[in-house]
Amino acid sequence: MIKLGSFSFAYDRETSSQLVDPETFIDFADSLKLDAIDFALDKGFPRTDLDYLMSLKLACLSRGLSIGFIDGGGSFVGTDEELIQRVQQAKDRVDTAVFLGAPMILLATGGVPEAIRPPMVRCYQEVCDYAVKRGIMVGMRGHAPVTEPTGEDILRLHRDVNRENFTFSMDTGRWVGSPGVTPKGQWDRSIDFYEFMEQTAPIASYVRAKIFKIDKGWEEWFDYERIIKILRKVNYNGVLSIYYLGKNYSTCDDFEGITLATNHLRKLLSDID
Question: Which residue range(s) make up the domain with 252?
């Protein structure tokens, strides 16, 4: 059964400019009866010491919320010094995932020129080799280090890294031609980015469900009925995790948007066999 979760990312209702703290979002996720929650330590976290992380772990455990992933940082594109720093950051996130009981960290990837592909592959391999000894998966998340990915970009990197604990977190909004990567949803309708999802769904172990325009009670830019059917076709049985980015596109606030998205996706999951 596909589970429903959310990325811990919402702006405070009063200020509309400051992210809420993880405790507030955990309570909110519990009120929606979600199955999982995902964290990025640079988004809304007041601190990251072990005492604080343990308090969050216990808060999730007491509410029956699984921690799906820890965001591991940016992509492996840059100078040698930058790559060393990013690899170390990813390793630190692996250790955090172990402490919190999350099975996976996510790292950004996308389309890259041939000249910078070899060092990117080596960095992924180094992180995977570190993570596998700690029982942690390393997931690609579609996000442009240079250009947005196609399905073949993802599949090729998966083959090139060639590590048992290297997997894919499908980001519904980050593809070449997707409305999620162009201003105000003015996307290239000549590109069927759903085909990229069909290509990569067999290797996906997590799905980030981007939500932009949900005022009417359903996501208007992305056809989630079609996306869920793609996932059902490959017997996907993981988490569908909401990532609401409708602040500039929907009239509702983040809490209302995530609530509408939860109801919308929960109904589709129930209706689509």
Answer: 3-271
For the chain, what is the largest distance between any 2 Cα atoms, rounded to a whole number of angstroms? Answer: 51
Instruction: Compute the distance between CA of residue 72 and CA of residue 61 in angstroms, rounded to an integer.
Output: 22
pLDDT tens digits, residue range 197-227? Answer: 999 999 999 999 999 999 999 999 999 999 9
- Predicted local confidence at residue 185, as pLDDT: 63
Query: Residue 70 is encoded by which pair of tokens?
Result: 């820890």
- Buried/exposed 96-131: b ≥16 CB within 10 Å, e otherwise: bbbebebbbbbbbbbbbeeebeeebbebbbbbbebb
For residue 247, what pLDDT is reported?
85
Higher pLDDT, 188 or 269: 269
Query: Phi, psi (5° rounding) for residue 114?
Result: -60, -35
What secondary structure letter does DSSP report for 28? H
Q: Which of 153, 66, 166, 62 is nearest to 107 (CA)?
A: 166
* pLDDT tens readout for residues 166-204: 999 999 999 998 888 876 667 788 889 999 999 999 999
DSSP-assigned letter for residue 184: G
The fraction of the chain above a pLDDT of 70, given in percent, is 98
Supply the CATH number for residue 31's domain.
Answer: 3.20.20.150
* Number of domains forming the structure of the chain: 1
**How distant, in Å, are the alpha carbons of 63, 123, 147 from that of 118?**
43, 9, 17
Residue 193: Cβ-neighbour burial (10 angstroms; 0-12, 13-18, 19+): buried
